[in-house]
Every structure is written in structure tokens, then in C-alpha cells.
Design a protein that fits this description.
By secondary structure, the protein is of the alpha/beta class. Helix content is 51%, strand content 13%. Strands 3-2-1-4-7-5-8 form a seven-stranded mixed sheet, with helices on both faces. A two-stranded parallel sheet has the order 6-9.
């Protein structure tokens, strides 16, 4: 058996009632990852079918080169919990997250592994079911729509350009894993993982993968409830899981932008403007700390002094754009200084 420091890749696979797929998955893994410096960790998340017994049988046959490990969670706790459990057990330089349901192709997983090991600058690759010229089968419009909407919201909140935040196929360098602390136990783990990677200033690369949708009758676990919960996790990860200084910036910019909005429209229109400006202000507070945000506010104030009526609206918009431009440049100037936390 290889020494601990010789393990190059850990593959973590959460399993919950996948007796129809684990055999086929094992042989696919054996085909693409049968090397003695690779460990494969199956985390059985409280399966009530024969999944765990099948995995034990496959392990005892010992017809493979990779390190085969099985972790048993007695009570079903969710995909996120299974991944967290697997990460604690893993020892590889790289960590590959792979679903057990065969919706995603292990051949793509191998391509992603070869890609990250051959390029020292890449530390994180997410699979994408929407940026792919590969074979796909997807009959569930609602799931696809929710996934794309969530990815769009994530991109707005975190200034990213990802096409598929929820794809279960991901590979990370150990450096990335050591910087994050996952806390979500269910399918919201994908948002938790992506948001923490971005917060720690790692670049997420995307790789188009094949996708073979399976129906609920075939054992698909995710439901519309998980889709609704994902919106909660997006809000939580962006507006609550922050440092104190960021939360203060969000509050500060939301208030002054709501004040700006109060000068637009009348009656119900005025209320809508206040609400929209308040939300927009919260996004500003995410990207700019107190001092940089004050530059934007001051620029808006100057714009409000020009002209009257609709002319004031135009002036405010122009000076708002100017304020954003100045704030971004000032923030960039102080990025690597001890004053960074104020900008």
C-alpha cells in the first residue's frame, strides 16, 4: 500500500440507496482510475437498500490497484454531510467529487484530473452540464431552469461567470480544501462550496461534461423543495456568512441607496424604487467596504445637486457610474495594503 504522502488523488463518492448503479460505477472507476496512488472513498449515507453490502463485496474481491475505502453513516444525513465526512478521511493532493448515480461520466472525471495535474496554475475545476458539446440527455425542464437561475444569481452575488454551480463533478487541489470549512449537510453543499472557494480568492475553471438525466422512478433524490432551499442558501452564503466589516458595509450601502431611491417616483412607484435601491445597495456593500462605498455615495450626492426633475435622475445615474469607477480603482490601489479592509 502506498505511503500517505504518495496518494495523488482522493475520489469522494456519496452513496444513498444506489444499489442499481454502484456495480457499474465501480467498473467505470476501475477502467479510468485503477492506479495505486489513487484512493476511492465511498461514503454510504445511511442507505436502506443493499448499496453498502454491494460495496463491501466489491472491496473484498480485491481486484483493483487503487485504495478502496468505505465509510458508513448510520442515519441518512445528506449529500453535504457525506462529502464533509469523506474530506476528513481523504489524503490525496487532489480531491475529486463524483456522484454515484451515473448521471455524470467518469471519463469526464478522468479528463478533469489529467487537466488539473498537467497545469500547475489550476487549482479548481467545476464540471458544467451546460457548456458541453458532449452527449446529453435531460428531460426535466424545471430542474434545469432552477439550476440556471441559481447559477445566474450566484454570478451576480459573487461577481463570477459560472454556468453550472450545481454540477456534482468537481476537482480541487488540497490547498483549496484546507482553506474552506463546509457546514451545509444537504444538496446546498454545492453553493456552500462554490461561495467559500470564491471568498478565498481561488479561480474556478469550468469543463463541459456529459449528462445523462435520470428520473425519480430511477432513483433521483433531488426535488423541487431542494430547488427552493437553494435560494435560501444563496442568500445565506452571500449576505450572512460574511465578516463583520462586510456585513456593516452591506447595511451601510443598503441604507444610503434606499435614501437615494426615495427621491424617485411617487406613491407606490416611490416604494418600489426604495426597495430596488435597497437591494442594489446590499450588492454594492458586498463588493465595496465602508470607505469605497462612501466614495460612491458622495459621487451620487454631487450628481443630485445638478439640474432638476428628470435631469436630476440622469445626473445621479451618471455620477453613480463615475463613483463606481473611482471606487473600483481606489479599491484596487489599496488591495495589497493594510488598509484593504476599509475598501
Amino acid at each position: 500500500m502506498p505511503q500517505e504522502n504518495s496518494i495523488k488523488l482522493s475520489i469522494i463518492i456519496p452513496v444513498f440507496n444506489e444499489e442499481k448503479f454502484v456495480n457499474k460505477l465501480f467498473f467505470q472507476l476501475k477502467n479510468y482510475f485503477n492506479e495505486n496512488n489513487i484512493e476511492i472513498i465511498f461514503v454510504d449515507d445511511g442507505s436502506t437498500d443493499s448499496s453498502f453490502d454491494i460495496l463491501k463485496d466489491l472491496k473484498h474481491k480485491n481486484q483493483y490497484k487503487f485504495i478502496f475505502d468505505i465509510v458508513k453513516i448510520d442515519i441518512n444525513s445528506g449529500k453535504g454531510k457525506a462529502i464533509q465526512t469523506g474530506l476528513k478521511k481523504s489524503r490525496g493532493k487532489f480531491i475529486l467529487l463524483q456522484d454515484a448515480d451515473l448521471e455524470l461520466d467518469t471519463r469526464d472525471a478522468r479528463e478533469m484530473y489529467d487537466m488539473i495535474t498537467n497545469n500547475g496554475e489550476i487549482q479548481c475545476i467545476f464540471g458544467s452540464r451546460y457548456r458541453s458539446g458532449k452527449l446529453k440527455k435531460n428531460n426535466y425542464f424545471f430542474n434545469s431552469l432552477i439550476g440556471k437561475i441559481n447559477s445566474l444569481i450566484f454570478n451576480i452575488f459573487f461577481a463570477q461567470s459560472l454556468s453550472d454551480v450545481h454540477c456534482g463533478l468537481k476537482i480541487l487541489h488540497r490547498n483549496v480544501v484546507e482553506k474552506i470549512k463546509l457546514t451545509v449537510n444537504d444538496f446546498g453543499i454545492e453553493i456552500d462550496l462554490a461561495s467559500q472557494i470564491v471568498r478565498n480568492n481561488f479561480t474556478i475553471y469550468e469543463f463541459g461534461v456529459s449528462y445523462f438525466f435520470r428520473s425519480k422512478a430511477q432513483g433521483k433524490k433531488i426535488t423541487w423543495i431542494d430547488g427552493v432551499k437553494s435560494f435560501y442558501y444563496l442568500i445565506k452564503s452571500r449576505f450572512f456568512d460574511n465578516s463583520v466589516s462586510t456585513n456593516l458595509s452591506i447595511l451601510y450601502s443598503s441604507i444610503y441607496m434606499a435614501f437615494v431611491g426615495s427621491h424617485f417616483g411617487m406613491g407606490l412607484g416611490n416604494t418600489l424604487f426604495i426597495m430596488c435601491f435597497f437591494i442594489f445597495g446590499s450588492v454594492i456593500g458586498i463588493h465595496f467596504k465602508i470607505v469605497a462605498s462612501s466614495i460612491i455615495f458622495f459621487s451620487i450626492f454631487i450628481g443630485s445637486l445638478f439640474s432638476k426633475g428628470n435631469g436630476t435622475t440622469l445626473a445621479v445615474i451618471i455620477f453613480f457610474v463615475i463613483g463606481i469607477f473611482i471606487a473600483r480603482n481606489v479599491k484596487q490601489y489599496f488591495l495589497n495594503t493594510r488598509f484593504n479592509k476599509y475598501f
